[in-house]
Amino acid sequence: MKVSVTVNTTDLTELDLQQMSQLGVDCIDFGVGHSFAGVKEQGFPDFDTLLQLKRRIRSWGMDINRVTLPNFTENFMQNLPGSEIELENSINAVKVFGEAGIEIVRQRFAGDVFYGRSQSYKAIQRGGAISRGESLGLLNEKTETPTLEELETWWSIFQRAYKELVPVAQDCNVKIAMHPSDTPHPDSPFGGLGLHRIIDDFPNKNVGLVYCIGTRAEAGGSSLVLDEINHFGRKGRIFLVHFRNVRGSLPTAGAFEEALLDDGDLNMFKLLLELRKVGYDGCINPDHVPILAGDVADLDDKWAFSTIGWKASSMGFAYSIGYIKALLAALNEFEGK
After folding, report:
1. Cα–Cα distance for residue pair 291/301, rounded to 1 Å
2. Whole-angstrom Cα distance, residue 118 to residue 92?
3. Which of 37, 49, 54, 265 has the fewest Cβ atoms within 10 Å of its own Cβ atom?
């Protein structure tokens, strides 16, 4: 297993790359599809500029692990006139990434998360560290969830897109990895049952998951995570792991808080043992890192109080990367390697 970090821009400075290299990062994951040169102009990445970016990253001893395709917007998911160009752009992006030798892509679908079903809040943890919390009880007026008919219509559009994308990905030797719905409210399209449905609908080895430990722990705690790693891992459908610890879960506490890797409910070493048991050998990515004193966080309004992507000189990221590398070294020693 290797260590990757997520960035939400392609404008990486020499300081970014130098610090990643110094910390022992192996790979970079790109979390925003429109950050690649060419997407805003032609709808999909420019091949030559992408190769330049890849060579620059490799010059520091790292590589690109996962990228994000251009988003499917509400227009596409509502099948509005003219939105079919979005599918064409994603198909072209898969071809460009495949030609560049990048093996994992993620496709985002508008509507996979039910916003307005829980209240975000600033969670204060040891020493004043700041993290994201979400509570079901604190939000008095909740938005309505889609009806069964609306969800089935949404799913049919998802299937139509994947039926076009998956064969292209297979031809290009690219894996399509889906991230669970975050926040994991009941009936979210990519909740526990939805993740199984993707695999059932597309029994193709190029279809799998960005398995987010934190998001799934928020849906059911450590036992659920262990069960899902065992299930999806045995099938070879885990392509990337987001490594996040949390306190509480929506079913048990009606709320959760993200936590530093050593300070939540989950035994992260135990999860690595389970990943090793099912043969996972991809990247481990520190995800949604709490904000430590002096950090300048890469924030997103949808996940307030949580560091989404890498920032140079982030103590939270440096701590998380070091913690993961120590766990991986302990895992090798534990197995006598």
Report:
1. 15
2. 37
3. 49
How far is Cα 328 from Cα 180, in angstroms, rounded to an integer?
25
CA distance linking residue 287 with residue 308, whole number of Å? 7
Residue type (1 letter), 219? A
Q: Which of 205, 213, 210 is nearest to 236 (CA)?
A: 205
Q: Which two tokens stand for residue 55?
A: 């060579």
Which pairs with CB-CB distance under 8 Å and at least 24 residues apart come from 6-9? Answer: 6/30, 6/31, 6/285, 6/287, 6/308, 6/309, 6/310, 7/31, 7/309, 7/310, 8/32, 8/35, 8/298, 8/308, 8/309, 9/35, 9/309
239 Ramachandran zone, left/alpha/beta (phi>0; psi -120 to 50): alpha
Does 299 score more than 80 pLDDT?
no
Phi, psi values for residue 176, rounded to 5°: -100, 120
Q: Where are the domains of the chain?
A: 2-334
Question: Per-residue confidence at 90, pLDDT binned at 50, 70, 90?
Answer: very high
CATH topology of domain 2-334: TIM Barrel (3.20.20)
Structure confidence by residue, pLDDT tens digits, 63-88: 999 999 999 999 999 999 989 999 99
| C-alpha span between 171 and 169 (Å, rounded) | 5
pTM over 0.85: yes
Task: Give residues with Cβ within 8 angstroms of 196, minimum separation 6.
Answer: none
Dist CA 141 CA 182 (whole Å): 20
User: How far is it, in rounded angstroms, from Cα 4 to Cα 321?
Assistant: 9
Compute the half-sphere exposure of residue 194: CA atoms within 13 Å on the CB side of its CA.
26
